[in-house]
Structures are given as structure tokens and as C-alpha cells.
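Running log. JK asked me to keep both predictions on one page so they can be read side by side. First protein, sequence followed by its C-alpha cells:
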Amino acid sequence: MEKLREVGRPVPRVDAFDKVTGRAMFTDDLCPKPCLEAKLVHATIGNGRVVSIDTSEALAEPGVVAVFTCFDVPDICFPVAGHPWYADSKAEKRDLADRKLLDDRVRIYGDNIAVVVGEDSVACARGVSKVKVTYEEWPVVYDAQESLAGTEHPVQERCPDNLLAHSLAVTPDEKLAEQGYDSVEAVLADPRYHHFSAHIESREQSQVHIETCVSYCYEEGGKIVCVTSTQIPHVVRRVIGQALGIPWGQVRVIKPYIGGGFGTKQDVHYEPLNAWICQQIGGRCVKLEISREELFWDTSGRQPKSFDVEASVDDDMNLRARSIVAYSNTGGYGHHGHALVLNSVNSFRWLYHGQEFATRSEAFTAYTNGPHTGAMRAYGVPEGNWAAECLMGDIAYDMGWDGVEFRLKNVYTDAFVDEFTPGGVIAAHTCAIPECVEKGKAYIEWDKKRAEYANQTGPVRHGVGVALFVYKTAVAPFALETATAALTLNQDGTVQLQMGATEIGQGADTVFSQMAAEAIGVDTEDVHIVSFQDTDVTPYDSGAYASRQTYVSGTAVKKAGLTLRRKILDYARFLYPNAQGELTLRDHHVLDALGHPVCDLKTLALEAYYNLDRADQLHAHETVNVHTNAIAGGCTFADVTVDMPLGKVTVNKIINVHDSGTLINPKLVEQQIHGGMAQGIGFGLYEEVQVDPKTGRVLNSTLLDYKIPTSMDVPDLKADFVEKPDPTGPYGNKAVGETPVISPAAAIRDAILNATGVKFYVEPMTPQRLFEGFKREGLI
């Protein structure tokens, strides 16, 4: 196999200069000023309905152009999640069409019930303050299991029991019978094995991206043009069409540079409403930008979940059976629905598959009057990993086993195949978990520190912890995976690359450029890609989520690159019919079979454009359907100091080691891992959207009250890799964008357990929870 030349190079980001110099244009930078602005009127109850809205005083405010209420908008329900669309009946089931532009049925505190349009933001704010609303108020239910027990007024009328979805995956009876059992419960209860159980919880986390949700819309050429900060421009186009009841071709969506998303912008939050407002005011440009406070309670953070887990294990460290029952709180709207908790319980099951032969995973997703939730980095897997690794940590601690040895004995291998996942088969083609663990152990000095930290006393103690993780790449085989790439040879011999896939800060444009260069046979620096997606111009791609783009969209890039390479060489053969043997392309030149230059690429490009006999703009436009998946994995090791009276945990050292196949750009991967580790530390120790269960109101919707780790809280972050190419990836690559956030929280929890012997089951492990735990165990 020929050595890769561009893939694997730590080339600088193609957008780095524009971003660090301020040249990069984001949505608000592009918005024409002045323009009309829109501000939402939010419900001040958590459950009920709007009886009436008086807009007369608001309309009398200077600068207010219009006020639209929930009684004015079309009676159309539409989906908002960035899920793939299907050309059959599965679409309606999958996409959860349970939103309206504005709604008189109030399901969550802060629901959108009206919108004020004004000449500027001050006029809008004054108008909003003058809107008078009369409600019929009903009791609020926030707990998922309480909601499933029944409420007088269902949160969503189409689900009278408040159950959005339920799933169950169990080892088949015939496989259990081979071992002499009739159920998973029988294996768990077998007196020959040690039994463990726990109730575990994870709370809602917010993405806290720098740029809030913002869009502006105007009419041009008979179309609604929506410029928006989104991860999913082609999905936004479709949803606007659905919400307004117009052909999708009448909508044009443009995505400029984006100031972060982490999953929030995998939902279509406000673009349909903004587009409809634009229609109502004669196509004038209108901007709708939400505040930081609105971001916390009117977008979609990580779903809060609870887990009841069980396991049985024999004396030789072999897991014999495991079970998980999960309850997920989607809030007042489905958004991404049951897919999130499915990822939680599936990853729980996939991670450990050593001697275990009996598994049971059951999940429920409930509508409640809590804030609506949705996609966030790693899409439900950090919560499932938290449950899995709390259980594994407890077993190792109680049995007196080395946590690394116990985990490695049971972790999945490259022979792992899971045929019991609803919707499709998942398999691991490669696995480098043991090599990852060895690197992590060495960095954290696992054996040495375990010995040093044994038998500690006093209020301040030290510990080391470990957690492993597993993550699938992309959404196949459960959902459609398709992407398109377009390449054109420019007159100067450089290449233009167009993608519907989106750069959202993760470096996608850079790795696409590298993959295209590799396939064509040119330098990455000779590939030009624009970070703007325009649904009227750029090819279709469903967007940035599920760590799919380098794997799926990258497959389209490679296919297009190989096609363009073939066309270039075919044209060279036309120009130079006497060239010897098979032609190749390398170092800006077409070479013959002996490696002698036939022509340089610039000369060929000029001939292709302007040849009098055979002018041809050489290009490639290729679409792929990807039906495979690739399992990525890895580990986190952490060294912590615990001050029990203060309820304070200091992370001294932490490392993530990843099995992500071939790294397209190692430096970008390192940056991704550092960012994900910081979010994982926040998930484990600080971040929680606090909701008043009596009203459904978010209590900490500012950056003063919602705690995220700062540079003062994050230690030096260490990233490492084991590169074992995966045969299904276009260049042996698999997921890495979301995986770094998965296991830091569980590793820190394991280190706290090692230091203090106290088990924590609710994340984040805030000072209050830590203090209460240490006090409960008599350590304070």
C-alpha cells in the first residue's frame, strides 16, 4: 500500500488565519444593518394554555412594527431535530413533529407564545414588556417517572400516558438456555456469583457555546433566504418548508462561520418562525437572536436521566450478567426523543462483553414540563458511560480488584458483534483498548500511585481513577447516511472543494481538504474550501453530528477525489498520447510509468479550460451511501486531590487515550480531545441546569450561576492515541469529535472512590453533594 502523503499531516487549519485575525464573518457580522429585529414573548407558567393575549399596548410602543401571537400562526406541527429524512412512512415516527411556530398550549416555563417585531432591539424589548397574557394554569410535572405514572393533562396530547417511546433489548432465550437459564434475571440472582446494583443519575448540561442562536431572513428571487448559525443547513431548509407549508425549493439556507454548537444547533430552533415573520412583513430583512438566558431554557441541553443498574460477577473477575433500566426526561417536546437514551443503554451494553453472555437494557423516554432537551456532544453516551463505570468502579472497589485489570478482562474486543440492538447490527472491526490503557497507566503512574495512596487518613486525600469508553461512528445502520462532495480543477491547477457538510469549529474543512488532496494526488495547500454552506449551491449533506463527517462525508470526498484524479489523467493522455505507460499524479505533475514528468498540473488545467478541440472543465460530483459503522474506544485516567471538608476536588493530572483509527490530522485531534476533556470535567464536577420542580423554571440561566470549568479549574490536559486503521473508514479513520467528553467524569469519580472510599451516584459531583456524601460516611 502506498504511503499516505496528506492524510496524517498536522497541517494548520485552513480557517485559522481568518479566525485569529477577525476576518471570519459570522451570522451577525453579515446581517445588513439596520434591519428589523424580533424578540420572543415567553410563557410565565410551566403548564397550561394561553386564554388570551392583549397586544394593543405593545403595538402602541414607538418602533414596534408588528406583534404576532400563537393565534396568528399556521396550525402546522413540524419536527426540529437534525435527523435524516426518509422518503417513506418512517419519517413521521422518527422526526417527532410536535412543535408549532408559536403555541397556545404551554408545556414548559418560557414556551414561545408571541413575537414582537421592531425597528431595533430596544423597541422589541419594550414591546415584549407590554404584551398582556391570560393563562389557564395546570400543575407541573418534572420527574420522568412521575410523569409516566399519569397526569390529568398530558404534556403532548398525542401521548396520553406521556410516554414518548420505550425500548427493550434482551439476550435471546436460546442463548440463555445454552447456559441453563431462563432469563437474565436468573443469571443476576445466581448465588454462585456476586451481585451488585445501584441507582444512578445524570443531570441536564448546557452546551454554553459562545455564539447564541441567531438568524436573519429576507425574500429574494421568490425565495425565503435564511442566514443562520446552524450545524445542519440542509435540514433547516427542509424544516422551514415543512413548518410554513411551502415547497422546500422556495427556501434557501446559508450557513456562515459558526461560533460553536455542540449539539444545540443540531436542532432547528427559531429559523422557521423567523422565516414566517419575514413572509408576514413583505420580505423585509428580520433578525432573531436569543439572549444567553434564553439559550439555557429555550434551546436543548443534555437530557437528564436516571439508571437502575445491576451486575453479577464471578470470583475470576468475569462479568456474568448486566442489566440497565433507564428513564430519560425529554421535557415538553420530543426534539431528538428516544434516540438519546438508546445511545445511553446501548453504549452501556457494548462497552463490556468479556465472559458476559446475559444482558438486558430497557429504556423509557418521558414527556414532562421540564425544559426541552436534545443533542449534546456524544449524544447520550456520557450518561450511559457514567452508569456503566460507576457500576464497574463499585465492583472493583468492593471486591478488592485492580480496576484496570477488571475492566480489561471484560471490555469489548475486535470480535465484538451486537445483534440485539434495535434497528441494526453493530460490530467492532478493530479494537486498541488494551494499548490505550497501557499508555494511560504509564502516564498516570497507576501502580505507583495506587500503592502511595493506600490507607490514607486526614481531611485531604489523593486518588487515581480510570474509565473506559465506547462510541459508534455515524448513525448507520439505524438511519440514513449519505453525503456528496464536489471537486473542480481551477485554471491554475488548484482544486475547489464544495461540501454540504459543515465546519462548526472542529476542523472539518481542514481534514476534508487533506482527504481530497490525498485522493487526487496534490498538496493540501492546493485545495480551496469555503466554510459557507448554501443550500442552493452546495451539495446535500445532513450535517455535523454523530462524529459522522470525516467517516461519511470523507468517503464522498475520497470518491470524488479519485474520480477527479482519473479525469485529470485521462485528459493528460488525450494531450500527450505518446506518454509511456500508466500515468500518475504527484507533486503538481503528471508523471509517466518511469516517473518522468509529462506536464505540470497548471499547464494541463489551462489546456482543459481553453483547448480549441476539447475544452473541458474537469470536475467530479460524487454521492455515497454508507451502511457500515465503526466502533471507537479509549480510556481516561485521572489523578485527584479531595478536600473533604470543603467538598472540593482538584484534578491534578488527566489523560485521554483514543482508539480512533487513522488520524487525518493529529494536531487537530489533540485540540478536539482537549476541548472534550474540559467539557467532560464540567459534566462530572460543575455543570447542572437547575430546574424548580414545582414550576419548571430554570433557576441558573446565566453564566454567573451556571458553572463551567475555566482555565483556573482545568489542569494540563494530556491527549494520546493508538492508531489502528479501521477497514470501513475512507482512510482507516473513525470517530473522534465527540469521544473525548465521554469518560472524564467517570474517571474522576473512580479517583474520588479510590481516595475516600465514598461512592457517588449523581453527577455533577458538586461541592454540596460531595460534602453530604463525606458527612454521610462519617468522614467529616
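And the second, directly underneath as requested:
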Amino acid sequence: MAWQTPAAIFLGPPAQELLRFIKDHMNKAHPFKSHLEKLQSTLESIIPKINEVHRLNALLTYLPRPDIERLKEELVKGKELVRKCGAVPSWNYFLMCRYSKGILKLNKDLRWFFNMEVTADIWLGNKQILVDLEEMMRKFERLNMRLEGSRSAPEIPEITYGLDVPLQELKMSLFRDDVRVLGLCSPGGCGKTTLASMLCRDRDVTSRFKNIYFLTVSSSPDFKVIVQKLLEQMFPTNPVPRFLTEGEAIMKLGNLMMRIEKEPTLLVLDDVWEDSVVRKFVFGTVNYKILVTSRTQCQVFDYKYSLKMLGDEDAMALFCNSAFPQNVNVNYEEPDRDLQNKIVRGCKGLPLALKVIGHSLHQQQAKVWQHTERMLSSCSIFKSHTDLLSCLGTSLDYLNENVQDCFMDLASFPEDERIPASSLIDIWVELYGIDEVDAYINLLELSTQNLVTLIEITSGDAGQIDGNLNGLFVTQHDLLRDLAIYRSQQKGTRLIMKSREESLPWKWSKEEHQFQNARLVSIQTGELSSSNCYSMHFPEAEVLILDFFATKYTLPQFIEKMEKLKVLIIANHGHYCTQLNYLTRPGYLSSLRRVSLEKVSVPMLNEIKMPLKDLQKISLLMCEVGQALGSYDLNFPYMLPNLVEINIDYCNDLVELPQGLCNLVHLQKLSITNCHNLFAMPEGIGSIRDLEVLRLHACTGLVELPNSIKKLQKLRFLDISECLNMERLPEGMGELNGLEKLDMRQCLGLRELPPSIMNLVHLKDVICDDETADLWEPLGWHLSKLKIVMREDSNLFWLGVDL
């Protein structure tokens, strides 16, 4: 990636030379002393910024910038100007005035340039470093997106119950000289992962171990992927190697462990189900420690620490915190204490049960509490896994049926993975005939009930009308995923692989008749080929999810028979884009309404050979799209006559959009975000007459927008935030009569607004930072509806950059 030239390369030496020259000639140019002192102060203040950009230059590649060349010339001329000041006679007021203006102008130019341009260079440099990191991550973590795929220890809840003593005991066990592999064991839902995360952040632990790595293993581990995730954490800026075999991964792991044995290292393996996985991490006498969280005892453990259930006091405190949250101020009469005690005792001190069941009873009538108590008293949580799921299932019984269905759909995605909220909403809109707002409300309800956890790693606007869902993700506890699978099996309208396998389950081909009513089919495999695909028929299937780790993948043959297929989600969790092998007759695509692809090499639309007349939404994440969009003669309106939304995120090979895309006159939302090599928008963009939302967030290669944008009379929201090189807005910007919201944070290259901006009388919200707010504040008296919304970019705080 090539970026702009940092000022330090060219400006450092002449700035230092000028500073020395001023100090040497200050007394000779006495009439100009006050001006020269200001210039001296400015030069001294910019030296740290020059040094910072020097540091970044060691990491990044840059291209020349003419404005830096011009300023370099001014610095060189400044030295000559100071020399002339020392030779001006006291009577020559004309030269004194002329040279004073020259000093003041140079001082002003330096201050502006180093407050704006060099700050932008530093920000841009840090931004680019982060972008490079993200390209190697397994699953998006946007700038303050924590490094994806190579996940560090999960966040700790604000309040924990009953874990302080276990933390001290676990720490003492870890520090024992005779313990190399420490097991942290308990049934699911007891808080093992939370306790392990607390340990990783404990001051005594971080001071003892120089390196701490946290890896989630899960019930269907792929050892090659686990080693890749470890490599990402160890060397986040290096390319991740491909392992063709598990033997290669084991050899690489052994080399890694030998390299770090001189540095105290703690490796946490979370959610381990198989003893064999841990054994692969134990190498001879290599000196590092391993903490393993598991539901069962592994023979490889040197010592096992058993996490007990919560005591009565902590159990009641956790339950009450969920059932009667303190921040909710309503007139609500709590059930009698005896009933509360019975329900808490029925949860047997299991934190997950106390939390989920407690929240499900929040503000419920007495009969609901009584029913829950009867259910808990009739089964023992630890008698069997089914009994545990039945007890947890009481938290679903009083939810709206539609919300219950949405909960069960969560089982369609792999365990211990972040689920894109946009994928869930696509499914719910098509399966249940609801709009996106209601689907989002259902997601919030599941979060409120502690049945899922929402993680938002963008600007926090996902819930707004024009909000961006690209940065909103969902996670779910393994036990709750088991509950979703358990409930969905009872209903029989979903076919879901419980865990990832190399190929389709053999029994599917023998039990095809059981799947005739499945409306949702979810397949989780490795590299799928035609040899391990079965010919089955799903006549009612409307949603197909293909989730895999592979560099090559063959679409299963039964897709051809999915006449009702509306939603297709293809998610590749490998480190490189996958090549899809297609079927000879792709007629199944004709009924599709929503398509989502992740880490896929998108083929040319010409290969489909038939119009996708029902397709309304396309989402592409970290895909290779250059081939698909490289056909400039493609008839987009014929191929995609009803397309209303396009989302393209982190597609690094996107350089330009074909002009033909502008013929999609029914397109309403166009979102192109984090595509840093996109250098221009097509001139004909003004032809998309129905466009309401245009989002170009963090397209750092864009310098300007075409003036034809003024024709977008229905445009309500324009997002150009973090378009760092955007130098100007279109002259016809003021003709956007429908524009209500503009996001232009971190548009560091914008120095002025076009005069026509005064005509945006319907503009309500402009989202700014300190720099861009200065451009808008003088307009407040004229644009009566205008509200300047200040919002800092959280990515800068993650980077530790103080601008």
C-alpha cells in the first residue's frame, strides 16, 4: 500500500537548519525579534511531530506530495529571509514591513501544515498499520476491532460473583513449580472463561509472564487453524502460513515454542473437549505454562482446579441483579422471598442459569415465577444435559414466538464465533416476513434477556435508521447454543450441523425424508468437494448457510433443487479468499433475495448467464471483487433489475466501480467501507435516482466526489468519515435537497466547504470531530435545522494516538 510522503523526510533537515540560523541571527535582526521568537517557538514545537513521522516512515511506504515540496522550498527561503532581516537598515520601513509579513506568513504556514497535514500523516500512518494488521485477521475486527481471529482474552463483566477467591487459588496453582499444564474444570456455564480472562489480566500474572496468549478451541477443533490463530497473536504483522497437513502445523508449533522458551509464557486453551489437542502443545522440556479450561478432566493435566458452584449468598446476589436491575425504575412488587429462594436453589448455583432465568423473570407476574419454580423443582440441572437445557428453556417460554424462532436460528452458526448481526437480520426478514427494524428489535430483546451478547466495534449507530450493521456482532454461550439446537430439533424446521466436520454427515443421505420441512439448512465443514456431497432434496429450504475453512470449495449439488431459496450466506473462515466451484446449471440463484459472501473470490456475473430478478441485497466482506467488477460491458440493470442494497467492506482489490453500476436506478443503499484502494467514484453516480444512503467510510484513497452527486435528490445520508485524503466536496453539494445527515469525521484534508452548502436547508445532523466542526459552526445561524454532533473516533484511543 502506497501512501503520502511524511513531512519528516523532506522537512526535517531544513527545519532544523532554519532553527539554528534563527538562534544565531536573533541579535542581528533586533527589530524582528518578536516575530522571530514566534517562528522559533513554532519550529521547536514541530520537532516532536517530525520525529513521530520519522518513526512511522520505517514501517510504511510513501509517495511524493507537491505541498511538502513547496513547504520545503519555503523553509529554505526562510533561512535567506532571516539573513536579510539582519541586514535591514533601521530607516527602511518598507523592507521591515515586507520581511515582517514574510516571517509571519512562514510561521502561519508552518503552524497550519503541522497542525493539520502532519497530524494527518501520523494518524494515517497509524491507520495504515492497523489496516495491514486487519488484513491478516480471521474475522473482522475494525480498527478498534480487536485483532480478529487471533482473539485475546474476552472482556470481563463489570460485576462478577464468587470469583475472587477462586482467582487467588487458581493463581497459586499456576505459580507452582511442579505444574506445567493446569486444568480449570467445571460444568458448562460456571464461569471458566470469565475466570481465565480475569487471570490473564491479574497484575501478578502479567508481571510474571511476558507473553500471554488466549486461544478458543471448541468442540470441533481444527488444529491447523488453532496454530494459525496463535501465529497471528505472536506475529500480528507477518503473513500467516498455510498448513496443508496437521503435521506441518505441529512442526511449526514446536519451532515456535522453542523460540519463546526463554521468555516466560502463558498459553490459555479455552473450551477444550479433547485431551489430544492439549498434548500437541506439550513439547519435551520447553519451559512455558498452559492453562486449559474444560468441562472434563484431561490426563495431561499436572493439576486440576475445580471451579465450584456459587454459594447461597453469591447465587442470590447474581439472581437479584438479573431479576431486579437497579437501573430500572418502575413500580414493581417483588415476589415473596421464599419463592425467590426456591428458584435460586433450583438453579443449583450455576451462574448461567441464575443470570438467564433471573432476567427472564424480570417484571413478570407471580404465576410466571410459580411456573418457573415448579419446572426447576421437577428436574435436576446436573442429572443430564437434557435436564439442564429444559431448565434453561424456561427462560424462553414467555418470549414472543417470533423472538423464540429468532433465538433458535442462532444455532445455525458455529460455536465460539462472532455472528454478523446483518446475517441474522437477513435471515429473519425473509423467514418471518418482518422488516429490518423489527428484526433488529428482536435482536435487542434477545440481548436484554441475556440470551446473546452484542458486540459493536464501530461508531455505535447500528440501531439508528441509517445505522451501519457491518460492525455489529453477536456471540452466544455454548450452553445457550445447545439450547437453541435442542429447541430447533423439537420443531423440525431447521437442519443444523452441531459441530464442524470435514464433510456432510453420512446419516443425512440415509435420513433425507426427515428434512423435507426444513426451511433453514446450515452446513459447517472443511474443504468440501463433489466427492463428499450427497444428492438430497430440501423443497422448503429458504435459507442456506455454508460455513467452512477452505481455499477451494464446491457448492453442494442439492442447491440446484432449492426452488424456494431466498437467503444464501457463504462464510469462509480461512486466512485467504476461497475459490468456489460452481454447478453447471446455476438456476437456483434465480429466486435469491439476499446474498452474503465472506472471504470469497467473487466470480464475474457473466458466468451466471441469467438475470437475478429477485435479488435485492448483496453483501461482500473481505472478498476479492476485482474480477466480478472488472467487466465493464455487463448489463447491470438486466442482471440485477431489483437490487436495492449493496454492501462492500474491506475488499482491498476494489480500485474503481464500473460505470454500468450507475444504471441500477432502483438502488437505495450503497455502502463501500474500508476499501482503501478505491481511488474514485464513477462519474455517472448521479444516475442512481433512488439512492437514499451513500456510505464511503474509511475509503482513504478518495480525493473527491463527482459533481454529478448533486442529482441524487433522494439522498438522505452521506458518510465520508475517515476519508483522510478527501480534499474537496462537490461544488453542487448544495443541490442535495433531501440530505438530512452528513458524517465527515476525520476528513483531515478538507479545508473549506463549497459556497453552495448554504442551500442545504433540510440538513439536520452533521457528525464531526474538533477539526471538521470548525467548518460548520459559522453556518449555524443560516441553517436553522443544523445540529453539529461531536463524536470522536474511538479507533484513535485504541491506537493510543493523541492528536
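Observation for JK regarding the second prediction: Residues 93-134 form the longest helix (42 residues).
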